[in-house]
Amino acid sequence: MLDKNGIAKRIAREVKDGFYVNLGIGIPTLVANYVRDDIEVEFQSENGVLGMGPFPFEGEEDADIINAGKQTITTLKGASFFDSALSFSMIRGQHVDLTILGAMEVAENGDIANWKIPGKMVKGMGGAMDLVASAENIIVAMMHTNRTGDSKLLKRCTLPLTGVGCVTKIVTNLAVLEVTENGFKLLERAPEVTVDEIKAATEGQLEIPDEVPEMILA
Questions:
Q1: How far is Cα 3 from Cα 144, in angstroms, rounded to an integer?
Q2: What are the backbone angles phi and psi of residue 42, rounded to the nearest 5°?
Q3: SS3 state of residue 187
Q4: Confidence at residue 117, expressed as pLDDT on a 0 to 100 scale
Q5: Whether the Cβ atoms of residue 204 and residue 184 lie closer than 8 Å to each other
Q6: Measured between alpha carbons, how far is 155 from 218 in angstroms, rounded to an integer?
Q7: Annotation marks residue 46 as catalytic
Q8: Of 135, 192, 189, 200, which Cα lies nearest the Cα of 162?
Q9: Phi, psi values for residue 128, rounded to 5°
Q10: Fold of 4-26+91-207
C-alpha cells in the first residue's frame, strides 16, 4: 500500500498542462512536489497565493510565505499574492480546474465530510465549503481506513457534511476509485494490494471491473 507521498505522487498524474489547481490541507499539499517538469501548472491557496511551488528545503524556509495550512512554501516565477476576497472570487467564480482535498469520510454518492468531528474543538470550516460548492472536478486524497481499521469509504457519511454529491475521484493508500451513479468504481489498485483487500476495506457499494490495473506512479 502507499504512504502519503505515494498518494500525492499518483494524484499528480491527474494534473494537466495549464491547470489551475487548489491544494487542500494535509496530503494534497504534497502534490506540488510531484508534478511533471514539462507542464505548467498554477497552484492556488485560498489564503491568497497563486503560483505555489514545492516545499522548501530545510534552511531555505521563509516564514512569511505559507499555504492555507500555515506550512512554509516556495513560489514560482510570476507568483502573486492577494487578499482572501480575491482568492475566494477565483474559487466561487469556478476559475479553478481541479480541487484536491483531504477527507475523513466519503460516501458512495460523492458526499464528503472533512471539517469536523463532533465533540472535538475545531477552528472553523475554512474554505472547504466554498471549494466543494464551486468546483466541478474534486479529487480526494485520503487513507482508505481509519486507525481502527474501519472503512472511510461509506454508504453514507456519519460526520457533518462539507458537501453533497461533489467528489469525482478518490485516491487512497489502497486504490484509485471513481464516484459513479452506482457507487464507487475501482479503477486502479496500489502496488501489491489485491482486489479482495480493497473490497474488504470498502463499506460503500463497489463496482469491480474484470481487470484492475496496478497504479503507475513514475
A1: 11
A2: -105, 110
A3: strand
A4: 80
A5: yes
A6: 33
A7: yes
A8: 135
A9: -60, -45
A10: Glutaconate Coenzyme A-transferase (3.40.1080)
Query: Which contacts qualify for 171-174: CB closer than 8 Å, 24 or more apart?
Result: 171/7, 171/10, 171/11, 171/139, 171/140, 171/141, 171/142, 172/2, 172/7, 172/142, 172/143, 172/144, 173/1, 173/2, 173/3, 173/6, 173/7, 173/143, 173/144, 174/1, 174/2, 174/144, 174/198, 174/201
pLDDT digits (tens, 9 = 90+) for 75-92: 999 999 999 899 999 999
Is a pLDDT exceeding 90 seen at residue 120? no
SS3 138: strand
- Residue 20 is predicted with a pLDDT of 96
Catalytic hit among 46, 108, 188, 203 = 46
How far apart are alpha carbons 106 and 156 in whole angstroms?
Answer: 8
d(CA 74, CA 58): 12
Closest CA to 177 of 90, 115, 108: 108
The pLDDT of residue 88: 93
Q: Where are the domains of the chain?
A: 4-26+91-207
118 pLDDT band, cuts 50/70/90, is: confident
**Comparison of pLDDT for 125 and 161, the residue scoring more:** 161
Tell me whether residue 205 is exposed, middle or buried, using C-beta atoms within 10 angstroms of its C-beta: 0 to 12, 13 to 18, 19 or more. middle
At 119 the pLDDT is 76
Q: For strands 175-180 and 183-189, give the pairing.
A: antiparallel
Neighbours of 2 (CB within 10 A): 21
